[in-house]
Design a protein that fits this description.
Elements: H1 20-26, H2 29-32, E1 55-58, H3 69-72, E2 109-113, H4 116-122, E3 133-136, E4 139-147, E5 156-164, E6 175-178, E7 190-197, E8 200-207, E9 214-224, E10 232-237, E11 242-245, H5 260-268, E12 271-277, E13 282-288, H6 294-307, H7 316-327, E14 336-338, H8 356-366, E15 370-373, H9 375-388, E16 393-402, E17 410-416, E18 431-442, E19 453-458, E20 471-475, H10 476-481, H11 490-497, E21 500-509, E22 512-523, E23 529-532, E24 539-541, H12 553-564, E25 581-586, E26 597-605, E27 611-622, E28 628-641, E29 646-653, H13 655-658, E30 667-676, E31 681-690, E32 697-701, E33 711-719, E34 729-734, E35 741-746, E36 754-762, E37 767-776, E38 783-791
Parallel strand pairs: 3-11, 14-15, 17-21
Antiparallel strand pairs: 1-10, 2-4, 4-8, 5-6, 5-9, 7-8, 9-10, 9-11, 12-13, 16-18, 16-23, 18-19, 19-20, 21-22, 23-24, 25-26, 26-29, 27-28, 27-30, 30-31, 32-33, 33-36, 34-35, 34-37, 37-38
Helix pairs in contact: 7-9
Length: 795
């Protein structure tokens, strides 16, 4: 429905953009929800009562004709839906059968039909769970205007305006004047007449590809130029907003994707998978992006209107950069606060989240950063935010990522020469077991040719850049070629994916470590990057997009280019000792938390002489950031090797050695530090492993022939794998096609006992859906399960 009469003046108040008053006003129901009604004033007998706002300005002194209430409140004016003010398409026909009322020759707009279903179908926005009109720029959309009399092209004039934001100016695009033309021009806003049927005027409005992304209001101004008739203008305002998004289907848009498979995966897919663990032990967890949820859309419009400058709202590079910065809760207006130390008192642990919708709902409710998240939760959120506004996006996971340095590709690890123990206060750098960031697809008109395509975005950097706590968008080709002079923060991403480890031995003298010697340098093993394959639930290795194969000619040229631009590479190090004993550490890949396993250490003597090795095996529990949490096991080894001999040793790890020391993602780091007696050469080897979590099984009942908006039952089964009672157990369920369910409290689970619980759920959306469940307790976290199902859509 249209708004009540309002002033032409723009809101130029002195309120700050982020003031609490303005922020609270934004969330009023009348501004947010479709169909929200404002309290109407009782009309006087001579005042038109209409669904839209009507204002009249007298420009001549001619006599004014009174309009009888029957002309406005008659049968024609009441032929609309009472719930949302839109005209029913089935009730358009009676207009042709009635004679138009006499209003003295003036022209009134009674109502506007936005044809939401039809327009959404043409603009690929029918999945959004809102009744409001959502269109994509670079396309036209259809509206029908109900007038009080037939439209005369020679004497009747209609001016259309679209407004966005709080201050409306033609100069910056927040106020758009849409002229009526005979032929459409794709370079600017314009409207053409599609048909005139009695009192119904159907228009096609072209939205140019340079339009600002955001929430708009439609306004129409009518006037008549006819001899002997007073010149008046009447203004109609449409209350329901119109949302304009980026358009991956339009070749002229910077976010254009050429294939349907890519658009379906990176725009329309509302659930996906995020990879974690190690490169040899890939694990995945399902994530509910929910970019079509009505609350998510409203949240995105709030962020764009309150944080993105008007001049940047049509540029996907700037929009991504600001959204990435807003996402990180480093200030009071951020969406989510990150924490990595396993201390989450009075807040939600990061491993509990499975849905972007839940996080954004809490943010909108509290208007404070949600506590707590980690890199993968923020990456899931950023994927939701970008896809919601029409920017193709995906989550990518980098394993063995050097995320703590900016100008050096080397991670330095220091050991005490006497005790063979790592020196914690010197080891301020670490390789993350995994780090998750985002990629967005766009053309870079701000850069030379050759840097279009996937751009990296990281919402969890270690440093700020120009006041923004974000990395990117960085062209992947710039990282691959070592062109570090291109924006934004290419050098940080380059060091993350091109890493080396240098092991140092240090001798302590009078409480100070001196005589630091390079014991060993090695390429980081397993440093690779994965994402989800389009249309499948399997991982795709995309390491080749970030760097050339290590050791190749192109890779060496890239490293040389990076060195010339200030990146210190490992080739500049020297003093490494020569090793004639090669050590490898092998661990099983299918170990579940609370299970025993064996560590196999293999030593190979490459020399022609006998070698005696004294070594110490150290096993640490770690946060996934690589930071040590606690020591789990320590064992001495003494190995005698004949010339060219290979020897293997096995160290047993019991569940009791590590269970009480594990951090969020059950990461273990294994070191073997030793000395060759004959040459006094230090030997250092390391290996990482990530233990698998117990399974949460989901089975469905009564799903045959299931349709949207119907009830079904899901049975959840979990077995306690540890020799202790699990307390404070909770179960949560998410999924775009399933009505959100709050966490359900479960009884305590005794050691090695099974828990089976049934939950009643309701589907709110048809099609291919993913049901995601999460289980948490005081002793074990990060337990998730998922099941895919196909639901018949409602016609």
């Amino acid at each position: 429905m249209g708004n009540q009469p309002s002033s032409d003046k723009s809101n130029n108040g002195s309120l700050s953009k982020d003031s609490p008053l303005r922020r609270s006003n934004y969330f009023r129901k009348s501004n947010f929800r479709s169909g929200g009604r404002r309290k109407k004033k009782h009309a006087s007998p001579g005042t038109p009562t209409k669904t839209g706002s009507l204002r009249s300005s007298l420009k001549s002194s001619g006599p004014e004709k009174k309009t009888s209430p029957e002309l406005i409140n008659g049968p024609v004016a009441n032929r609309f839906h009472s719930d949302n003010g839109r005209m029913s398409p089935r009730k358009l026909e009676p207009w042709k059968l009635e004679a138009p009322p006499d209003t003295g020759g003036q022209l009134f707009v009674k109502a506007v039909e936005l044809h939401c279903l039809t327009n959404k179908g043409f603009h690929s926005t029918e999945e959004y769970q809102t009744k409001d009109l959502i269109i994509r720029r670079g396309q036209d959309f259809q509206i029908s205007v109900l007038l009080d009399r037939p439209f005369q092209e020679n004497t009747d004039f209609i001016t259309i305006q679209m407004r966005t934001g709080t201050v409306h100016k033609i100069s910056d695009g927040t106020l758009v004047q849409i002229p009526m033309v005979k032929e459409s021009n794709k370079n600017s806003w314009n409207a053409t007449i599609k048909s005139i049927e009695n009192c119904c005027l159907t228009l096609m409005i072209w939205c140019p590809v340079a339009a600002l992304v955001g929430r708009y209001r439609l306004m129409m101004k009518t006037r008549v130029q006819r001899e002997g008739l007073p010149e008046r203008s009447f203004i109609y305002e449409q209350e329901e907003p119109i949302y304009i998004l980026f358009n991956p289907w339009c070749e002229d848009d910077a976010v254009y994707l050429s294939t349907d498979v890519e658009r379906k995966e990176y725009i329309q897919c509302d659930t996906g998978y995020i990879w974690f663990g190690t490169a040899k032990q890939l694990r995945k967890r399902a994530w509910d992006f929910a970019q079509f949820d009505e609350g998510v859309l409203r949240c995105m419009m709030f962020m764009i209107e309150s944080r993105v400058k008007v001049a940047s709202r049509n540029d996907p590079v700037k929009v991504c950069q600001i959204l990435c910065d807003v996402l990180n809760g480093h200030n009071e207006y951020g969406v989510m606060e990150s924490r990595y130390n396993n201390k989450y008192s009075f807040a939600t642990p990061p491993t509990t989240w499975n849905s972007s919708r839940r996080i954004l709902e809490e943010y909108m409710r509290t208007q404070r950063p949600v506590r707590y998240g980690q890199c993968w939760t923020l990456a899931g959120l950023l994927t939701t935010m970008c896809r919601c506004v029409g920017i193709p996006s995906r989550c990518v996971t980098s394993f063995n990522c050097n995320h703590d340095t900016e100008q050096d590709t080397t991670v330095n690890v220091h050991f005490d020469s006497n005790s063979n123990q790592p020196i914690e206060n010197l080891n301020d750098q670490s390789l993350w077991f995994f780090h998750v960031w985002n990629e967005v697809w766009m053309t870079r008109k701000d850069l030379p040719h050759g840097y279009d395509g996937w751009q990296a975005l990281d919402p969890t950097p270690q440093e700020t850049n120009k006041g923004l706590r974000s990395i990117g968008p960085v062209p992947l080709n710039a990282v691959k070629q070592g062109h570090l002079y291109y924006p934004h923060d290419t050098n940080q991403l380059f060091t993350s994916v091109n890493s080396f480890t240098t092991f140092w031995t240090c001798l302590e003298e009078f409480g100070v470590y001196r005589n630091m010697t390079v014991a060993q340098q090695e390429d980081v093993k397993g440093q690779s990057i994965f994402t989800k394959q389009p249309g499948k639930s399997e991982p795709e290795d995309i390491t080749n997009l970030y760097r050339h194969p290590k050791g190749s000619k192109d890779y060496k040229m890239t490293m040389q280019t990076a060195n010339e631009l200030g990146i210190q590479a490992v080739e500049e190090r020297n003093g490494e000792q020569i090793h004639d004993v090669i050590i490898t550490i092998e661990t099983p890949s299918d170990v579940v938390v609370a299970g025993d396993f064996d560590i196999t250490i293999t030593m190979h003597n490459t020399s022609s002489e006998e070698r005696n090795v004294d070594a110490k095996l150290l096993v640490f529990s770690c946060f996934y950031t690589g930071v040590t949490k606690a020591r789990c096991k320590e064992e001495l080894l003494a190995v005698k090797l004949k010339p060219s001999e290979t020897s293997s040793s096995v160290v047993h790890m019991a569940a009791s050695d590590y269970m009480m020391q594990l951090a969020d993602h059950s990461c273990l780091k294994i070191y073997l530090v030793g000395t060759i007696e004959e040459t006094k050469t230090k030997l250092i080897a390391q290996s990482d492993m990530c233990l698998a979590r117990p399974e949460l099984e989901i089975t469905l009942k009564n799903t045959e022939g299931l349709k949207a908006d119907e009830i079904f039952f899901a049975v959840f089964h979990f077995m306690n794998p540890v020799s202790m009672t699990l307390t404070n157990c909770k179960l949560s369920v998410d999924g775009c096609g399933v009505e959100a369910v709050k966490s359900v409290d479960l009884p305590d689970i005794e050691p090695f006992q099974n828990l089976k619980t049934k939950m009643k759920l309701r589907l709110i959306k048809g099609g291919h859906q993913t049901l995601i469940a999460g289980f948490t307790c005081d002793q074990i976290n990060n337990v998730t399960g998922y099941i895919e199902l196909d639901i018949e859509r409602l016609v």
